Amino acid sequence: MSATTAAQRSVAPTASTLNPGYRTLWRWHFYAGLFVMPFLVVLAITGTLYCFQPQIEPLLYPQLLVVKPVAMPRLTEDALLVKARAAMPPTSTAVTATIASAPDRSSEFVFRLADGDKQSVYVNPYSGEVLGTLSVEHRFMQVDRMLHRKLLLGKPGELLMELAACWTLVMIATGVALWWPRRSQTVRAALVPRFKLQGRPLWKNLHSVMGIWLALGALAFVLSGLPWTGSWGKQFKALATAANLGAPPGSWGGLPLRSISPGTRNVATAAAPGDQAAAPDAADPHSAHHAHSADMDSMPGMVMDDLPLPLTPWAVGNLRVPASTEADAVSALPLGNIVERIAALGVTDGYSIVLPTSATGVYTVSYFPDDPRQERTLYLDQYSGAILKDIRYGDYGAVSKAVSYGTSLHMGRYFGLANQLLCAAISLGLAAMAVTGCVMWWKRRPQSALGAPSRERAAPPMRSWKIGLVLLGVVFPLMGVTLVAVWIVDRAIVGRGSRPANPSALEHGEH
Question: Residues of the chain whose pLDDT is less than 50?
C-alpha cells in the first residue's frame, strides 16, 4: 500500500463524521426490527387472509354458505328462524340474525348454547332446509382474526401486538432516516433496486428500497390499527368520547331511550312511536340533559362491544345498550316485523340484528358496510318497534369519522378488490422486509453474539430524535416503558461489546 493511499484513507471522512448519529439510528432500527420481525410476519399473513374473507369463506364452507338460486319467493325471516331453532338443543338461545339478500347465500342465525359456546346455523332461504352448523369461535376467519389481534393468547397476546405496532413506528422512522440519500446519491437512485448486486449488498439494497416504498402504507396500517388495540385503543376511545370527538352522548336525539308497552304507557313517562310531546323538551337543554342522564343510569351495563356481533363500528363500541320496558301480556314483535321497519329506514341488506334475550332486551341493528359514511347502529324496542336510538356517521365526532375511514381502508373494504390487492401488497411487502432484514442480520452477525451495531464514540445531540422518542413514549405509555427498558439493557448489558463498525460500510450506508 502506498503512503499516498494510506494518507488519503487516514483523512477520508466516514459516515460517522459526515452523518453523526447514523450508528445510533442503526442501533435503534436493529432493536426495533429484531422485536417486530416475527410479529410482522404473523400480521402480514393473517391480515392478508382477513382482507379476502368475502372470497375465501365461500370456498372453505360452500355447503353452508352457498345455495342455488331458484325462481321462488324466499321464506320469511321468522320462518327461517323457526327452522334454525328446531335444529338446535332446546336449552340454546337465538342471539343474532344476519340479514343478507344475495340470491346465492344462505341465511345465518347464531345461537348461544348452555355452556356459553356459540354456533352458527345455516338455512336455505328458499326451502328452509338446515344446511349445517359452524362454531363461531373456531370458524377459520375468526381464528385468523384472533391471531391477528392477540396471537390466540388472550390479553398478553393483545398487549404484545400493541407493542409490536408501536415499535413498528420506531422501525419506520429510523429506516427512512438510514435510507435518506447522502453525499452524491440521488433520490432516484435510492428508489430503484440494483439487481446487479450480489450477496449481502443485494439484500441490503432490496431491503432499503422496499422499505421506503412501503413506509407510507406501513404507517397507515399501524395508525389505523392502533385504535382497535385492547389497551391504548380503549383509552383513546374513552378520551375521544370525553372530548366530544367520538360519538358524543345525546347526539341522536328524538325519542326517549325507554319505551313503555301498550297498556302501561302514560304520557308522563313515555311517548308513542312518532309522538314527540313526551320527549325531553328540545327548547330546554337542561331538561334534556337531566332526562338523558336518568335514562343512561337506568340502562344495563352491557355495551356494544359485548354483543354477539362479528364487527361493530369503532365509534359505538363503548355505548351502553338501552332496554325495553317489560310488557304485561304483550308479545314481542317478530323478527320479520323488525326487518320491515329497518328496510323502511333505508337499511335493506348486509347487516346483523342482535335479538333480545330477556324481557327488557332490545333489537340491536349493526350496519357496518364498506363505505363508512353509511355506518348505522339502531336500537328498537322489542314490543312497540319504537326507535330508541339511531346513530349514523354524521353523529360521529371528528376522531371517530377518521377511524371509520381508516378501518375500512385497513380491512380492504373501501374501494373493493383494488383496496384488497393494495392491502395484500403492503402486508406481504412488510413480511418480505422482515425476511430480508433477518437475512442481512444473519449474514453479518458475529459468532456467539447478538450483532447489534456499535454505538457512537461521541454521542451526537440528536435532540429531535430524543424528543420524538419521548413523545412516542408519552402517547403510547406501554411502549414508553419498553423504550426505557431497552435503553437500560443496552447500556448495562449489551454495552460496547457490539460488533465493531466498519467505516467503509458506514460510508456507503451499510446496515
Answer: 1-18, 252-256, 259-261, 264-300, 496-510
Tell me the pTM.
Answer: 0.80
Judge contact between 453 and 34, C-beta under 8 A.
no
Bridge partner list, 93: 112
pLDDT of residue 266: 40
Which residue's entry shows cell 398478553? 156
Length of the chain: 511
C-alpha cell at 209: 428500497
Q: What are phi and psi of 121, to 5 degrees?
A: -115, 130
Residue 54 φ/ψ, nearest 5 degrees: -60, -30
Q: Is 161 helix (H, G, I), strand (E, B) or coil?
A: helix
Query: Within 67-198, where are the H helices?
Result: 77-86, 140-150, 155-179, 187-191
132: left (phi over 0), alpha (psi -120 to 50) or beta: left
CB hemisphere CA count around 174 (13 angstroms) = 23
Strands of the sheet with 362-367, listed across from one edge: 130-135, 118-123, 107-112, 93-99, 351-354, 362-367, 376-381, 387-392
Write down the pLDDT at residue 392.
Answer: 92
Work out whether the CA dihedral 259, 264, 265, 270 comes out positive or negative: negative
pLDDT of amino acid 508: 40
Q: Please, what is the end-to-end C-alpha distance for the chain in angstroms?
A: 28
**Residue 141 cell numbers, joined:** 376467519
DSSP string for 304-321 = GGGSS-S---GGGTTPBP
Query: Which residues share a beta bridge with 379?
Result: 364, 389
Q: Is 479 helix (H, G, I), strand (E, B) or coil?
A: helix
Grid cell in block for residue 24 = 445510533
d(Cα 295, Cα 256) in Å, to the nearest integer? Answer: 8
**What's the pLDDT score for residue 150?**
94
CA angle 214, 219, 221 (to 5 degrees): 95
Give the model's pLDDT for residue 256.
44
The three-point CA angle 317-400-417 to 5° equals 90
Q: Cell numbers 397476546 label which residue?
A: 157
